[in-house]
Write a structure and sequence with these properties.
Bound molecules: 5-hydroxymethyl-3,4-dihydroxypiperidine
CATH class of the largest domain: Mainly Alpha
Number of domains: 2
Number of helices: 18
Strand order of the largest sheet: 1-8-9-10-11-18-15-14-13
Largest sheet: 9 strands, antiparallel
Distance between the termini: 25 Å
Radius of gyration: 27 Å
CATH topology of the largest domain: Glycosyltransferase
Strand content: 25-35%
Number of strands: 30
Helix content: 25-40%
CATH architecture of the largest domain: Alpha/alpha barrel
Length: 721
């Protein structure tokens, strides 16, 4: 399946950078053209590699680009000037750019009009799924008329940085015709090495020179081509960080690397992809979403996670949010349980920092970071947004009050055990996470004696426009859930290991009373659950009214002065996310009433919102709505519809949580797949355009094929895994 554009527009450079991104979890390469540089937001982003400059926000590091290439046409006799071909300056006759989804291969083909006739440049590139530090590119250059062409190709030392510069300028060298550029990250002094080598047929008569400029290390290859003759070269690059490249692999030829990559990615893609019958748009949406999730999977490590903006750049500090555990995790646990384990391991390994954060805020247990970077350090700023009018930072209560983050980790852990049955993972380390999270909420609840209940005050729920609220329904239910799962897994741990852990025993004995008395906001007489204490008393205005009041399209709607803060308008699914998580506890009438109430009051200004509404819509039979929300989630990066600014802060990039949401919506919503007591059941809710679905999932160590046709479905075990 191919996703492409058939024209070039400067206005689409940023969008296409996200739309046509390739990557392998270790490295992302934005969908930019080879002639582009940092001004066009070229980024070879290295998730999990961070750099922070004094007084600035953290960024994940972007590596120098080894595929930087531009062409020059030498003037013909009597006409001395050379002509540089560049999409932003030259006349373009035709242009195609895209990705082949099942190969994770980026391609472009541009026909430039030159003073000597047309010239076609085409390229393909990949970031290897088979051997992670390797990238490959192939370029073909074909002039319509005889031309003398200079190919400038090498390593662009300049990188796009949000809060940089993050790289010290480094040393360039050439060894055995390999261009090598070694630079250092500023904060930690990590050695980032970029190597590139090229190959082309000796049949061409070329003149090659290498030049080291302050901003680039370049090969300058001069070649005279006949009418219609193609000059083809291939390039391999290797990007390593404080590690050596495996010579046996680096030494392989381009074609070998390409085939290894293609076979590896194709296998992953085909085993995860969903076949949709009767609806090309939904097919595109789901395959495109699955593609985005697969290129993020950290196969290169045993403990790593996925940033909220994936591999697309440095937005949100390259940090990991609840997006991973709540929105992307279901895809990984059902299609690649080993990757799911890697994601969890990251949180288990970062437990010490979560414990430290809880202590810093005066609590016990584990308070996981809102924006997690290396080792689980919280990169979230207390002033996470800027005011568009004054350019002053706005105090936001994400880092210190969004305590629901800890419960997201136990929620994912619980899903892992439920879906995989892999209790070998219920080690003391894992148990420790259940314990510390439960302890955190235990230390955070407040015993309201006059009300005779435990409450959670001063929190920010998923809806970030209403900060510092009391008894946010989502947070309270998730805290309650965290207590329950701690008790459940502690019981299991005990029965497997026949050993008790004193501190856990102590918490266990305290929790029985807390569980019974922790306040869980219940449906009122209209079946509505109040998002937090006092929410229903807020001004009840329409979205249109809010828009009328807005003075600037990007003004921040939350915080002390935000237009939404004093109203019932919310940023994203909040009660609805809670209802999805705990759907078994509520009647259909409650689901319906809340869906109807909160829908017109939700701005969906977070990409995490649509899928939750879509999931609840599928439960209550609002299939047109669920379909619309599916397309919103699945095609957000295809259409480039994600928000670009939160106040004055740039937040562009890809939206992997939304891709994960689209997967959930199709599998758990449309197909109605449920996993209970060792059995998979289906209860299809296919929206009208979709006639059928076919896909496989992993459950309890086995692979199952699920086929939905209209309102019926079947589940069949697949022999080999
Ligand atoms: O995690 C989300 C949050 O819920 C809304 N703001 C953006 C974050 C990253 O996607």
């Amino acid at each position: 399946m191919i996703v492409k554009t058939e024209y070039f527009s400067q206005a689409d450079i940023e969008k296409n950078g996200n739309k046509f991104i390739i990557g392998n979890g270790y490295l992302g390469y934005r969908g930019t053209l080879e002639e582009f540089r940092k001004t066009e937001l070229v980024a070879l982003n290295m998730p999990g590699v961070y750099d922070t400059l004094p007084g600035k926000w953290t960024d994940s590091v972007n590596a120098p680009n080894p595929f930087y290439t531009y062409l020059e046409i030498l003037g013909c006799e009597g006409k001395k000037e050379t002509e540089i071909l560049h999409p932003l300056k030259s006349k373009i006759v035709s242009h195609k750019q895209g990705i082949i989804l099942d190969e994770a291969l980026h391609f472009r083909e541009t026909v430039f009009q030159t003073s000597q006739g047309n010239l076609t440049v085409s390229s393909k590139r990949f970031v290897s799924s088979a051997y992670y530090p390797i990238l490959g590119m192939e370029m073909n250059i074909t002039p319509k008329n005889p031309m003398e062409i200079v190919i400038n190709t090498g390593i662009d030392k300049e990188v796009w940085d949000q809060f940089g510069p993050h790289l010290e300028s480094g040393e360039a060298s050439v060894q055995n015709d390999v261009l090598i550029y070694v630079c250092r990250t500023k904060e930690k002094g990590l050695n980032l090495t970029v190597q590139e080598k090229i190959a082309y047929s000796p049949y061409y008569e070329t003149y090659e020179n290498i030049e080291n400029f302050p901003d680039k290390l370049m090969r300058i290859i001069k070649v005279r081509l006949k009418r219609g003759e193609t000059f083809k070269f291939t390039k391999l690059a290797c990007i390593t960080l404080n590690q050596a490249v495996e010579e046996s692999l680096w030494g392989l030829r381009y074609q070998k690397h390409y085939l290894m990559h293609r076979n590896c990615f194709r296998e992953r893609f085909n085993s995860a992809n969903i076949q949709v019958e009767g609806d090309g748009l939904a097919q595109l949406g789901i395959s495109y979403s699955i593609y985005h999730l697969l290129i993020l999977a950290p196969h290169h490590k045993k403990s790593a996670s996925i940033p909220a903006r994936g591999l697309s750049g440095q937005v949100y500090k390259g940090a990991v949010f609840w997006d991973t555990e709540i929105f992307m995790f279901p895809f990984f646990v059902l299609t690649a349980p080993e990757v799911a384990k890697t994601l969890l391991r990251y949180r288990i390994d970062s437990l010490p920092k979560a414990i430290q954060k809880a202590q810093e805020f005066g609590f016990s247990g584990a308070y996981y970071p809102w924006e997690s970077i290396e080792d689980g350090v919280d990169a979230c700023s207390l002033f996470n947004v800027t005011d568009v009018f004054t350019n002053r930072p706005i105090r936001t209560y994400f880092k210190d009050k969004q305590i629901h983050i800890s419960s997201a980790i136990v929620y994912a852990l619980d899903r892992y055990f439920k879906y995989t049955g892999d209790f070998s993972f219920l080690t003391e380390d894992t148990m420790q996470v259940f314990y510390e999270v439960a302890l955190f909420y235990y230390s955070r609840i407040y015993n309201s004696q006059w009300q005779d209940r435990y409450i959670l005050t001063d929190v920010t729920g998923p809806d970030e426009y209403h900060e510092r609220v009391d008894n946010n329904a989502y947070t309270n239910y998730m805290a309650h859930f965290s207590f329950e799962v701690f008790l459940k897994y502690y019981g299991l741990f005990w029965s497997i290991n026949q050993k008790s852990i004193i501190r856990m025993e102590d918490l266990k004995s305290k929790l029985s009373q807390v569980l019974a008395k922790l306040y869980l906001p219940k449906p009122n007489k209209n079946n509505l659950i109040e998002q937090f204490d006092g929410y229903f008393a807020l001004e009840d205005i329409s979205i249109e009214e809010l828009k009328k009041r807005q003075l600037h399209p990007n003004e921040y709607l939350g915080g002390a002065w935000g237009l939404a803060s004093s109203t019932q308008l919310i940023k994203q699914a909040d009660v609805l996310t809670m209802l999805w998580h705990f759907k078994e506890q509520f009647s259909l009438d409650v689901l319906k009433a809340n869906y109807e109430y909160y829908s017109p009051r939700t701005l969906h200004t977070s990409s995490l919102s649509a899928c939750m509404y879509g999931l609840v819509a599928s439960l209550i039979g609002k299939l047109d709505d669920s379909y619309r929300f599916f397309l919103d989630s699945a095609l957000i990066d295809y259409e480039g519809k994600g928000g670009k600014y939160a106040g004055g802060i740039y937040i562009g990039g890809t939206h992997p949580a939304s891709s994960g949401g689209a997967y959930m919506l199709m599998v758990l919503g449309f197909a109605g797949v449920r996993f209970e007591g060792g059995k998979i059941t289906v209860k299809p809710n296919l929206p009208p355009p979709i006639k059928g679905l076919k896909f496989t999932v992993n459950y309890l160590g086995k692979l199952y094929q699920i086929e939905i046709k209209g309102s019926t479905g079947s589940v069949t075990g697949v022999e080999s895994m």
